Please model this.
Amino acid sequence: MCAFGTIHKLLFINCNYKLYYINYKFIFMADPIRISISEAARLFGLDSKTIRRAIKAGELRYIVVRGRYKINFESLLKWSQVKPTVRNKSNTQGIGQYVEKWKISNKLYSPKPEAQ
Model:
């Protein structure tokens, strides 16, 4: 059960949601997505040792759950786009190799059909 409280236009919540206060609007974000080292290596087409080196260097945010690293997916994405070698491997050997296949070619079913 969540506990709510308001003080000076700020809302404090004690439950599994995080609170962001932006331009007087409250936006609730669910818990961050966390994945294991092996899942990260498969998604980005990398060796698990590369992910472990990034953890050791402090380049990725993570928690330890039952003796296993769980990497914050947002920090993993940012890290993968900063490092050129990781970005290139992700595009050729990881999940990036499927991006072209995901594009919608039939304009009838496109989410944004062009105006006629």
Observations:
- The chain has five helices and seven strands.
- The two ends are 51 Å apart (CA to CA).
- Strands lie at 3-7, 10-14, 18-22, 25-29, 34-35, 62-65, 68-72.
- Residues 34-97 form a domain with the Arc Repressor Mutant, subunit A fold (CATH 1.10.10).
